[in-house]
Amino acid sequence: MADIEHIIMTLGGVRKTARACDVAPSTVQHWKTSRRVPRWHRERLLTAYEARLALDEQSASDGAAPSSSKNNPIMRRVGE
Length: 80
Prior knowledge:
This protein is mainly α and 80 residues long. It has helices spanning 4-11, 14-21, 25-34, 39-61, 73-77. The longest helix has 23 residues, at 39-61. It is elongated. It starts with a helix and ends with a helix.
């Protein structure tokens, strides 16, 4: 698993990560502080992270700047 701080940053911060994982922001903050994500949250977190990476990769191959998760239909689907 990638570093949790990197994942949170990639997803747009603590609040956006919390929305994507359907948890409270304080839960994500705890993951960040403890540098551990409980097993039962990992799948949803990694799904959101991989979707974000795929979008950034697609944007880069199209020659566009990475899109913000605010206007991103995939991120909205995973809880944005």
